[in-house]
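Reminder to self: keep the SMILES exactly as supplied, no canonicalising. Ligand is N-carbamoyl-L-aspartate.
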Amino acid sequence: MAKILIKNARTAKGDELVKADILIEDGLIVSAGGEIAEEGDFEVIEAKGKLLAPGFIDVHVHLREPGFEYKETLRTGTRAAAMGGYTTIFAMPNTNPCPDNEEVIGKLIDKCRTDALINVGFYSSITKGEKGSELVDFRAMMEAGAVGFTDDGKGIQEAGLMYEAMERVNEAGGIIAAHCEDESMLFGGYVHEGEYARKNGHKGIMSLVEDLQIMRDTALAEKTGARYHICHMSTKEGVEILRRSKAKGARVTGEASPHHLLLTDMDLKEHGNWKMNPPLRSSEDRKALIKGVKDGTIDCIATDHAPHGAEEKERGLEKSPFGIVGLETAFPLLYTNLVLKGEVTLERLLYLMTEGPSKVFGLKQGVLSPGAPADLVLIDLEDEWTIDSEKFESKGKNTPFDGWTVTSRIDTVICGGKIVNIGGNLNG
Ligand SMILES: NC(=O)N[C@@H](CC(=O)O)C(=O)O
Ligand SMILES: [Zn+2]
Ligand SMILES: [Zn+2]
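Structure tokens returned for the bound complex:
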């Protein structure tokens, strides 16, 4: 494989951008930082001061294959990811069939060889068919390549079942990623129980729906010693419980999604594109998530990219399915609205999209060190553009951010030493 030298890029160090060249060969980083002489037989990419970072890692993506190919496929979802600067994504198992056995997960891993533009990892479900009763064979699923275990889309309703799952996942050396939702506490709610729901006559979802399972599961993780990761955290109480559990030494981590970091229930509109699970919460919740992002309580940012058909999302807040897309807008939205507004540093944001998730799942990606996979992104931090969902590579156009103007654009994406996105043109 060809050698590539990227000249005159810049990396984020504290509040500064420092000049960096990077040399890659055979799909790996050979050296990074400082100046590298232009001698030898390699392709040179002139970065012209663009920001260089490890390719982004998103540990929470819905690719919808098999079973819901009209919403997304391995191909369209990984193309969307490559547009967003991602080089590694983990796909959720709420598909049909569901990867709860070696055969289904094996087929998905195989199909990625032809269909995926970037690295894809697959979660196994925790229970057979995500039905919440019979546990999968955790060891066998890990041997078949599962990156973790989740029943995402649903919470595990019984404490005893989660306890047993943690015991077995721990024995197998795996990690549970939990969608926290106590269904007995829903009472028909579909948006946050807050000001917007009250004013507009909608049924609310209490924060407790999420917090009760976070309390229960952190207690179970403390008892069992299992690796436990909280998906799409949305409440201030949840952040505080995670902070306390970490202080006790439990092996617990958490992720937050761009929409929960940027929007509140008062941003809701009467359209399905503002409906997701967990729902947009209050401004105190949003502030607590940002605090968690800054102080290290929250370990990574994950989009929870959840594409749906346009007609499904036309059914309004009450009747449309939960979920919004996120892969193609995450970095520009967060850079524009958190970094440029002084809420979070660029270095911290990048950490949460690279090394943070890499550490949670024990990956070799996510760093710019010699020997690491050459998964890289170059970003133009000055370019200003307006989000237009019609231009998405994703089949899902369901975003509340349509029409938002953002600063920064993903310019080049290299995955395993191969250029997969150059100036928005995808390769492969
Ligand atoms: N987040 C969502 O609102 N929807 C997800 C399921 C999930 O992540 O819980 C989906 O599969 O559409
Ligand atoms: Zn979920
Ligand atoms: Zn999800």
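Points to follow up:
The pocket of N-carbamoyl-L-aspartate (ligand 1) is lined by residues 62, 94, 152-153, 179, 276-277, 304, 306, 322-323 (CB under 6 Å).
The chain has a mean pLDDT of 97.
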